[in-house]
Predict the 3D structure of the following.
Amino acid sequence: MSKIKISRINHVGIPITDRKKTLPFYRDILGLKIIPSQVDSENVIWTQLEDGSMIHPIETNDPEGGASHVAFQVKNFSEAIKKLNELNIPIESGPGERYDGQKFLFIRDPDGNRIEITSENNLKKNNRSTDEWGYTSKR
């Protein structure tokens, strides 16, 4: 049986309650760089490690509400969709495309954990910028 070909962990979503309290930990202590968000959700802060992988602290009042997830980047997004369909694994949301052209979808593992499948990032240019608190706007 052929498998979905994961190339790396693209990002991890971590639920937080207050960006003013928590973001300094990720930014100032762990040294993560704040980058522009590629989605229209002010509650998602996009931070990046030197190797390009990301941590997305997600402001939420409900830590069980789906903020917590891991995103696996695959070598061929279309093939991954085909394989999920062959295996009758329901796609919970998506497929969709972010401002940078990255494709994504969400599924659940057998224990109900939210899993994101993505293509590569930065497939097209956009004019988004961010401030020190991770709020993103268009230039």
